Amino acid sequence: MAGADHLKLLGTKQSMFTYRVVWALKLKGIEYEFIEEDLFNKSSLLLQSNPIHKKVPVLVHAGKPISESRLILEYIDETWKERPMLPEDPLERAHMRFWASFVDDKLMEASRKAFASSGEDQAKATELTAEALKFLEEEIGGKKFFGGEEMGFLDIMMGWFAYWFPFIEEVGGFKVMDPTKFPCITAWTNNFLQVPIVHQNLPQPDELRNVFLGFRSFLLSAHKDH
Amino acid sequence: MAGADHLKLLGTKQSMFTYRVVWALKLKGIEYEFIEEDLFNKSSLLLQSNPIHKKVPVLVHAGKPISESRLILEYIDETWKERPMLPEDPLERAHMRFWASFVDDKLMEASRKAFASSGEDQAKATELTAEALKFLEEEIGGKKFFGGEEMGFLDIMMGWFAYWFPFIEEVGGFKVMDPTKFPCITAWTNNFLQVPIVHQNLPQPDELRNVFLGFRSFLLSAHKDH
Predict the structure, then answer these.
(1) Among A84, B29, B162, B170, which residue's beta carbon has the most beta carbons within 10 A?
(2) ipTM of the complex
(3) Domain A7-79: which CATH number of 2.60.40.10, 3.30.200.20, 3.40.30.10, 3.10.450.590
(4) pLDDT, tens digit, for every residue of A93-118?
(5) Ranges of H-type helices in chain A
(6) B-chain residues within 8 Å CB-CB of A136?
(7) Of the candidates B68, B93, B102, which has its C-beta nearest A52's C-beta?
């Protein structure tokens, strides 16, 4: 297991992508040093480590950077084998990766649009978000976690939905989640937030709300100028 | 090794995503049955196998479907270990996956926009395509293939660029590729197209041109009505 001097995580304390990596490292019991990035004044370490996208999170392992949360999770799972996040069977792995891409490309993308818009555009994006969520409602069904009895790769990829999404709805002024329409996703959200390493590693609600308030105000004013 | 009765590839003979899977299967020497899909009249097997996206390619292995070309390649590499496409080292694997995402999200996305637009929008998208390609020019440098001496995962993910991109430029009416600006990518294109299993598995130029002509005409007329 790598010591803190070997493993650095560059992230922010509100970033849903950063927390994916935090939860994965905590799940595996791996020590690391967290380096808080100011996205308005990015460190030279971040710019050197991820010169293409210049985004957090970046995991720096023995001086070598890995970026993009999905790829960092795969890297962690391949490097530290104990408590695997992905199942062993190639077909099940493909299945989990498929839904992880769906979460990022469909659910997150639609909710991002709902958050960044208003009026008719927002109504359309809200509907798309609900449609994407419906697929995930069917996928989880009566299971405790997406992977079964234990939190795994897809749960971690979807984790932002359990905690960040209510703030996205509140600040964005739209509503998708409804326990009567999405009983399985509601149950999953509760199960996920009760996992100790998740529960103990979440941003402060006020800080998160403020970040989203600032972000929404920026997006809507940018839109107006357009 | 699976017999033809076990492995079915649902695809089209012009689809750049389908050929990724063809090349991977050929590279591994795996027999399969190719099932040509008519995208205007999709088979019930396709609709059942990929109910979410309803897209090709889909690999059906012993009755179980796997979709999305990137995930199919990972599945193939994990299921048939001989002649690996991804390197063994987790850091190198992350590196290849990073660039594969870059190819899809940046290079392909920008060239898709250039193809689907005209005028000022097309000029902007052309510039973005060239910017993305510049990063790949630096990444490949003097290497024969992205993975080194042998064709691997990233070469296959980037393969559409070697053969499809000239048609995209021609039909789209824009120009990015220039051997003097991109000497390393030019050399890679030649190396890639000389690999026998690539050379022997490519669509007919006329058919490909016709597909793109129809597609561009549809896109521009849809744009005009907007």
Answers:
(1) B162
(2) 0.93
(3) 3.40.30.10
(4) 999 999 999 999 999 999 999 999 99
(5) 16-28, 44-49, 69-79, 90-102, 109-115, 119-140, 153-163, 165-172, 183-194, 196-199, 205-225
(6) none
(7) B102
